[in-house]
From TrEMBL:
ATP binds at residues 122-128. The lineage of its organism: Bacteria, Bacillati, Actinomycetota, Actinomycetes, Propionibacteriales. GO terms for biological process: cell division; cell wall organization; peptidoglycan biosynthetic process; regulation of cell shape. One of its GO terms (cellular component) is cytoplasm. SUPFAM superfamilies: MurCD N-terminal domain (SSF51984), MurD-like peptide ligases, catalytic domain (SSF53623), MurD-like peptide ligases, peptide-binding domain (SSF53244). Pathway: Cell wall biogenesis; peptidoglycan biosynthesis. Keywords: ATP-binding, Cell cycle, Cell division, Cell shape, Cell wall biogenesis/degradation, Cytoplasm, Ligase, Nucleotide-binding, Peptidoglycan synthesis. Transmembrane segments: none annotated. It is an enzyme of class 6 (ligase). It catalyses: UDP-N-acetyl-alpha-D-muramate + L-alanine + ATP = UDP-N-acetyl-alpha-D-muramoyl-L-alanine + ADP + phosphate + H(+). It comes from the Bacteria. InterPro entries: Mur-like_cat_sf (IPR036565), Mur_ligase_C (IPR004101), Mur_ligase_C_dom_sf (IPR036615), Mur_ligase_cen (IPR013221), Mur_ligase_N (IPR000713), MurCDEF_pg_biosynth (IPR050061), UDP-N-AcMur_Ala_ligase_MurC (IPR005758). This is UDP-N-acetylmuramate--L-alanine ligase.
Length: 483
């Protein structure tokens, strides 16, 4: 895969009928949903059926299981992601027929035309920050359009068409597609080297964010100054005369978080802006979520929300699926699932999980342990970050490591989950278990866990199946039986 260059697009109303290849993906499904919601004939295909395809069918998307050239039907536009290979039979047929072939980002950019684009980029925190911004604007009555990389936990929906002026999108930097969007407000949550198989060097990756933030349409840049990479960019943009809103816990932040304290399953703090200050309480835990909320708050103020409306609306956010999502609390064992797949994301997730473990210990009097079940994602990322993955696994009492989920990549000889196991042991992790087959993870975790423990599955691959498969095993334990 190589970096994408922005292309000229036409309004979404002019592109149909439209067909999405791999329509069940987290990025593709939301865009397909919006095309169907606008009344544009929409179809799609994926290698297997799923709850996502079933949901798309309910909004009018014709979904096929498996790939076949005939499934293009009368499509005029075919939408792909960077994971789709040129030998895919549907893509090959679209090329043969001379159809318009767009990357997902172009299809989304076409939807955004004529709206106030809010694009949320960054190495970590994009999905939650996008979701917080969308929920805040919705709860405050601004009725935004949005496309999020994961469904909201309250609605199970990741995309919607609104009547308001704002269109909020999660902007993916991995393949450079964040350059495609007509962005008025650019949000940058942090910059820490990733996706080097595409970008080549950390310097090139960081430079990509500067290009993103300085596109002609961008009027405001909302940027985290607690992170070294994004702070460096903030200083550079300010020196260039750009309008920058800094957020974070740093003393020079324009939107500043301070006096952070746990609050039930969430967190509370003081939020200070240039013209207002007061408490903010979230229903989701962790300093990282307060940072995400302060970014969303800054966007809301730029778009005209007052302080009280923005803070109150953010307090109603209940999270997105696969972001510290509780799967089950059975037999005295809590199981969470989290999308974290980069060392910094994993550190934040495990830090929140540690606080939850300690809170559980205080409530129950049991000496509960934190058990991290991690599935590395992509062979290239495992090579780049094996040592960092190993180091962050020491934050758990027990680390259970799965083999690599290769996803769109071909295997690299010698690159397996054992690289992370070895690194964890080098860094002093005392209890590390390697389980090659993901389907063996539920039984392994059931054998390890005891009442009071907190288990968190980590990764952006199919490790998400583990919690639901573990839940019935926990339900069979004597501790779970009625007395």
């Amino acid at each position: 895969m190589t970096l994408l260059n922005p292309i000229e697009v036409v309004p979404a109303t002019e592109v149909g009928p439209v067909h999405f290849i791999a329509v069940g993906g987290s990025g593709m499904s939301g865009v397909a949903h919006l095309y169907a919601e606008l009344g544009i004939p929409t179809s799609g295909s994926d290698r297997s059926d799923s709850s996502t395809l079933q949901a798309l069918r309910r909004v009018g998307v014709t979904c096929h299981v498996g790939h076949d050239a005939a499934q293009l039907g009368d499509a005029r536009t075919v939408v792909i992601s960077s994971a789709i290979r040129e030998d895919n039979v549907e893509l090959a047929e679209a090329r043969r027929r001379g159809l318009r072939v767009w990357h997902r980002s172009a299809a989304l950019a076409a939807l955004m035309m004529g709206k106030q684009g809010v694009a949320v980029a960054g190495t970590h925190g994009k999905t939650t920050t996008t979701a917080m911004t969308a929920v805040m604007l919705s709860e405050a009555g601004a009725d935004p359009s949005y496309v999020i990389g994961g469904p909201l936990s309250t609605t199970g929906v990741s995309a919607a068409v609104g009547e308001g002026e704002a269109f909020v999108v999660e902007a993916d930097e991995s393949d450079g597609s964040f350059m495609q969007y007509p962005t008025r407000i650019a949000v940058i949550t942090n910059i820490e080297a990733d996706h080097l198989v595409n970008w080549g060097t950390p310097e090139a990756y960081a430079a990509g964010f500067h290009t993103f933030a300085t596109q002609p349409e961008v009027a405001w840049v909302v940027i985290n100054v607690d992170d070294e990479g994004s702070r460096t960019l903030a200083d550079q943009l300010a020196a260039e005369g750009r309008r920058v809103v800094r957020y974070g816990e740093a003393e020079d932040a324009d939107v500043r978080i301070s006096d952070v304290r746990p609050s039930g399953n969430g967190v509370t703090a003081i939020l200070t802006a240039r013209d207002a200050a007061g408490p903010i309480t979230l229903q989701v835990p962790g300093n990282h979520n307060l940072a995400n909320a302060s970014a969303a708050y800054a966007v809301g103020r730029i778009l005209g929300l007052d302080h009280d409306a923005a803070v109150e609306a953010l307090g109603r956010f209940e999270g997105t699926l696969r972001r510290f999502q509780l799967i089950t609390d059975t037999a005295g064992i809590r199981v969470y699932d989290d999308y974290a797949h980069h060392p910094t994301e994993i550190r934040a997730a495990l830090s929140a999980a540690r606080r939850a473990t300690e809170a559980g210990n205080e409530a129950t009097g049991l000496p509960g342990r934190l058990i991290a079940c991690f599935q590395p994602h992509l062979y290239s990322r495992t090579v780049d970050f094996a040592d960092e993955f190993g180091e962050v696994m020491t934050l758990a009492d027990i680390a259970v490591i799965n083999d690599v989920c290769g996803a769109r990549e071909d295997p690299i000889p010698g690159v397996t989950g054992e690289l992370v196991v070895d690194a964890a042991r080098r860094h002093g992790a005392k209890d590390v278990v390697y389980v090659v087959d993901k389907y063996d993870l539920p039984a392994a975790l059931n054998e390890i866990a005891r009442p009071g423990d907190l288990i968190i599955t980590l990764g952006c691959g199919d490790v998400t199946i583990v919690g639901p498969l573990l839940a019935p095993l926990l339900a069979e334990r004597p501790e779970a039986q009625p007395r």
